[in-house]
């Protein structure tokens, strides 16, 4: 029999409907498996990326906070600003009460973010140069090329006393002359209670500073949490967005209630929120907790995350990921 007869050829041509349906079903199973693997890999990637970003933000937040806490209440060789005179105009815009202490804070209500306030000096001190005084003089001499600018707030100290004031002249860097008149900036200088030259000489310093005195810049740093430019909560430093992805900042203050130079002195007896601190002057360390959150939602299987924040259990209001980073830092200038 001829194997290539039309009868045999017609029996082998095409596929049956059952074969096509089986092939389609197998294809659907295969594509479904591939899509499931792809979706799982994509979700894993999103979670890992979110965790990496939270770790970066949390660690960076603790790093900058720790650095500023360590240097809080620094006043050069004068460890106690209690002998300082604040010559800034208390009625002027931007007045800072530096003598109220180098560490302060505002407790957030019902778990809301806290605010941390740190004050003190920074930068290398500039030696005071002759001519010195007289007490009513409206300027102090330092080396030129000092990096100072008009309206900078500085302090001069000889380790036993100090004066805080605002620079009022336009070129302190090039001239090496630091003028402290009442000025046109804010807050300006105005202190009529300084001994020796009260009344009309409102720019007067509390004493004549000589070669044993130095001049340093001052600063007040405020850390807060607010909504950032990208629509994400962020850590703000002096009103400027510093680091996004930080949802909460909680602060506990470690008070040392033991008398100086006794056993136990230099160690915090307890840690409490700002509204429970007995005396901020006794705070020698600060315990911080920052909560970093992911940008994306739907990263934890649709289950709201439960995390611990200083012993308090917190349930998230969405399905973003969150991580808590904590650190305890000593205020070095108080030890």
Explain what the structure shows:
A hairpin with a 2-residue loop joins strand 14 and strand 15. The model has no long low-confidence stretch (mean pLDDT 88). The protein has helices spanning 6-12, 17-70, 172-175; strands spanning 84-86, 103-106, 115-127, 139-141, 153-157, 162-166, 177-179, 214-227, 233-237, 240-244, 246-255, 270-272, 283-293, 306-309, 312-315, 322-330. The protein is of the alpha+beta class. The chain has three helices and 16 strands. The chain is elongated, with a radius of gyration of 33 Å. The protein has two domains: 16-70 and 245-335, no CATH class; 77-108 and 118-221, no CATH class. The strands form four sheets. Strands 1, 2, 3, 5, 6, 8, 9 and 10 form an eight-stranded mixed β-sheet that branches. Strands 12-11-13-16 form a four-stranded antiparallel β-sheet, covered by helices on one side.
Task: Summarize this structure briefly.
This protein has 335 residues and is an alpha+beta fold.
Number of helices: 3
In angstroms, what separates the terminal alpha carbons? 110 Å
H/E series, N to C? HHEEEEEEHEEEEEEEEEE
User: How many domains in all?
Assistant: 2
Biggest sheet overview: 8 strands, mixed
On the 0-100 scale, what is the average pLDDT?
Answer: 88
Find the structural class using helix and strand composition.
Answer: alpha+beta
Q: What percentage of the residues does DSSP assign to strands (E)?
A: 25-35%
Q: Which outline best applies?
A: elongated
- What's the β-strand tally? 16
């Amino acid at each position: 029999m001829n194997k290539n007869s039309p009868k045999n050829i017609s029996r082998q041509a095409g596929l049956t409907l059952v074969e096509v349906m089986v092939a389609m079903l197998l294809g659907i199973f295969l594509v479904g498996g591939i899509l499931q693997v792809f979706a799982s890999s994509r979700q894993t990637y999103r979670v890992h990326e979110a965790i990496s970003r939270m770790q970066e933000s949390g660690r960076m937040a603790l790093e900058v906070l720790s650095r500023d806490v360590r240097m809080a209440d620094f006043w050069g060789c004068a460890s106690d600003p209690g002998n300082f005179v604040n010559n800034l105009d208390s009625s002027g815009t931007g007045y800072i009460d530096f003598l109220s202490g180098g560490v302060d804070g505002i407790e957030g209500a019902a778990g809301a973010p806290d605010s941390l306030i740190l004050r003190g000096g920074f930068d290398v001190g500039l030696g005071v140069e002759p001519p010195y005084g007289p007490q009513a003089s409206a300027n102090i001499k330092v080396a030129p090329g000092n990096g100072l600018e008009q309206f900078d707030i500085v302090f001069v100290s000889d380790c036993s006393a100090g004066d805080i004031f605002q620079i009022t002249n336009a070129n302190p860097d090039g001239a090496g002359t630091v003028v402290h008149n009442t000025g046109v900036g804010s807050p300006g200088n105005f202190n009529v209670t300084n001994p020796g030259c009260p009344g009309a000489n409102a720019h007067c310093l509390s004493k004549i500073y000589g070669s044993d005195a130095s001049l340093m810049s001052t600063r007040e740093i405020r850390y807060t949490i607010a909504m950032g430019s990208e629509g994400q909560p962020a850590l703000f430093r002096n009103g400027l967005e510093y680091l996004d992805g930080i949802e909460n900042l909680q602060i506990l203050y470690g008070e040392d209630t033991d008398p100086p130079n006794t056993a136990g002195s230099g160690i915090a007896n307890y840690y409490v929120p700002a509204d429970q601190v007995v005396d901020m002057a006794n705070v020698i360390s600060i315990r911080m907790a920052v909560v970093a959150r992911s940008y994306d939602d739907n990263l934890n299987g649709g289950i709201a995350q439960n995390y611990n924040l200083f012993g308090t259990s917190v349930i998230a209001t969405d399905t973003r990921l969150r991580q808590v980073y904590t650190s305890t830092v000593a205020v070095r200038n108080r030890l």
